Amino acid sequence: MYRSLFNILSGRNTRQGLWGLPLLVALLISLWLTVETTQFATAENLFNLVAQAMPLIIAAIGQLVVVLIGGLDLSVGSVMSFTTAVLALDQPAIVLIPAVFVLAAFIGLINGLAITRFNVHPIIATLSTQYIVLGVTRILRPVSGGTVPEIVIDAVSGSFLGVPYPVFWGIVVILVAWKLLYGSRYGLHLFAIGGGIASGAESAARNFGVSDRRNIILAYVVCSCFAAVAGVFLAGRIVSGDPNVGLLFELDTVTAVALGGTQLSGGIGSLHGTVIGALVMALLANGMNLANVSPFVQTAIKGGILLAVVGLQSRKKMGL
Amino acid sequence: MLGLLKTVGLGVLVASALAVTSLAHAEDVKLMDGVAPRPDDTRMTAAGAFKKDPPWVIGMSDFGVNANTWTVQVAHEAENAAAKDKRISKFILLDAGFDQKKQVADIEDLIAQHVDAIIVQPVTSTSANASIAKAVAAGIPVILHTGRIDSDAYTTEIQGGAEHFGKVMGDWLVKTVGDNGKIWVLRGLAGHPEDTNRYNGLLESLKGTHVQIIAEEHGDWQYDKAKKLCETLYLNNPQVDGIWSSGADMTRACVDVFKQFGTPIPPISGEGNNGYFGQWITDGFKSISPEYSPAQGAAGVRAAVALLEGQQLYKRYVYNPDGWDKDKASKYYRDDLTANVWWPSELPEDKLKEYYGKK
Fold first, then answer.
1. Do B129 and A239 touch (CB under 8 A)?
2. With an 8 Å Cβ cutoff, are A238 and B126 in contact?
3. Which of B244, B265, B288 delimits the end of a domain?
């Protein structure tokens, strides 16, 4: 009994991945910062931390959906930059906000079609759209600037009963993603398709009547839409459009997903693991700032911790 | 009536004296050689507005420490200036790595640490505005340098004009290649405000001339990329009268390409980099070096200290020095130091040798 409880908590022998390890790392970092610094365990800093982690949490959840089916979306960062650029087009919010989601869904559709209909490798397909979207973004907004609709700024910077809005963004996004992954037939199909691809039986899900093509296309559309939500949040935080704001998000989201115990080969992973993975990354950045770690060594420390945590999560260790 | 006039006259005299005194105080604060109050903006901070008893904790949000050797030196200059002042108990240097959202987070983290002053090198002209305003609203003075923002919500700024930088090189190039010259333009990072503004300075120089840009490419201020570019441009069309280069590493790369092909090096603009100075002195080609000192990092610390001492500062300072010729470059060039040091520097001899000495 104790062993099965341990297995659930550690993710061993489950399809959730090893999310217990990054959780432990997050707790250890938090404990260390609470002891070492006077500012970490303050409400002001913790709310800052949530706001700082939120774009990565949102975009990483989108990336998780794609990774679960054995794919990868490298256009995530460009979609985020593009979203901020569109939002700064000086048009009414009622036009701009729906527009960014329609455009993001279209980008996801292109990715999905390229991968499923034309058999382009996900890395090549999404790298191509990354460049195309980045190019269009730079045409729209060559340098940062413009004005984001007030409603977007208020939705990110305000608070309700002393709780900043980013906390509510997190709750809503996680609930939606939870429903999608664990409370819908579509979520079940994602795990089935990914599991089949990871074990070399790509047609396994199809044999049970699951349309892998349609679900894969939809996964890329969902991923782009999450990236657009993250872009809207970022636009509210930087109060402008910026062609480069999403740079490196494609890699950070993959790192957060992997850190959270999700297997990049597909079929194994969890929402809570991904959220924890993103939080660990934000904690590292926030913690090293508070601990006044020299910027000359911060990157190396971050890389070392990420390598250690991800390196401990081999597929074999999960018993799969 | 006479009494009233005397009173008014005396009042005007006292007010004038006070104004002159406050002006003198502001001008007394020497931030850096070549830095002066912006002539068209006389706004000042209130005397004693940010006065605090030491020890002070000063935070700095750097736009990107490790982008290139110049940005590394800015960080060293700031750290050194802070270490020299014993009233500064802690200097927190945070690196945004040219990531806008990281800079927003860094400034928030500094506010949460209740630092006494924040120095910001903005990544872009807009992305950090909200967090800078938040710091000012929390009573923390914010000093900007080496990058502007589209907002007045800071305390004071020291800005080396990128347009000025581009124009110094552009004016010299126009004079050197003549009215009908054909030039290449090597730009920095696409979308970066510094690149756009330096380029605008060049366009200003070209106005009213017939100088023709026959090739224009982005070398991202990087040696490797610029070398490939110059090789391609040379092989495509070697007939060029002069080159406007937005940064020293790209200039060094392009000079190396011409040497590699064994052809004369056309007039080319440079920058205050030791490696470039060595190349300029040795190879003897025509060039100019606009000044953009990494010691602006130290000037930012001095501005923060001045505010915490209760001194008045102008809202805006400009840093628009003349370009350097080869004679001036020769006075600064150090053969015993690597190509990674930039001039002029305020680093003491031991630090110069520690960071840049040839081993």
1. yes
2. yes
3. B288
Domain that holds residue B189: 162-288
Amino acid at B208: G
A300: confidence class by pLDDT, cuts 50, 70, 90? confident
Nearest-neighbour CA in chain A from B93: distance (Å): 7
Q: Do B191 and A48 touch (CB under 8 A)?
A: no
Per-residue pLDDT of B146-175, as tens digits, reads 888 888 999 999 998 789 999 999 999 999
Instruction: Say how far apart CA B285 and CA B272 lie, in whole Å.
Output: 16
Q: Which residues of B touch A153 (CB under 8 A)?
A: 130
Instruction: Calculate the CA A58 to chain-centre distance.
Output: 5
Judging contacts by C-beta atoms under 8 Å, the chain B residues touching residue A285 are: 102, 105
Q: Does one domain contain both B284 and B297?
A: no
Annotate B311-341 with b (16+ C-beta within 10 A) or e (fewer).
Answer: bbbbbbbbbbbebbebebbeebbbeebebeb
Listed range (A137-146, A219-228, B309-318) with the worst mean pLDDT: A137-146
The mean predicted confidence, pLDDT, of chain A is 86
Q: Is the pLDDT of residue B98 over 70?
A: yes
From B107's Cα to the closest Cα of chain A, the distance in A is: 10
In tens, the pLDDT along B14-65 reads 444 444 444 444 456 889 998 999 988 989 999 999 999 999 999 999 988 8
Instruction: Say how many domains are in chain B.
Output: 2
Most confident among A167-176, A191-200, B194-203 (mean pLDDT): A167-176
- The answer to whether B66 contacts A39, with C-beta atoms less than 8 Å apart, is no
B128 contact residues in A (CB cutoff 8 A) = 238
Same domain, B120 and B232: no
Question: Where does the pLDDT of residue A14 fall: very low under 50, low under 70, confident under 90, or very high at 90 and above?
Answer: low
B313 and B284 assigned to the same domain: no
State residue B93 phi and psi, 5-degree precision: -105, 115
Best of B72, B108, B129, B195 to mutate (most A CBs within 10 Å, chain A): B108
Q: Do A245 and B113 touch (CB under 8 A)?
A: no
Q: Any idea what the CATH number is for the domain that residue B264 is in?
A: 3.40.50.2300
Phi–psi pair at B241, nearest 5 degrees: -90, -25
SS3 call for A164: strand
Spatial distance between the Cα atoms of B223 and B211, rounded to a whole number of angstroms: 26
> Is B109 within 8 Å of A289 when comparing Cβ atoms?
yes
Whether the per-residue pLDDT at A40 is higher than 90: the answer is: no
CA–CA separation, A275 and A290 (whole Å): 22
CB interface of B with A, residues 58-87, below 8 Å: 62, 65-66, 75
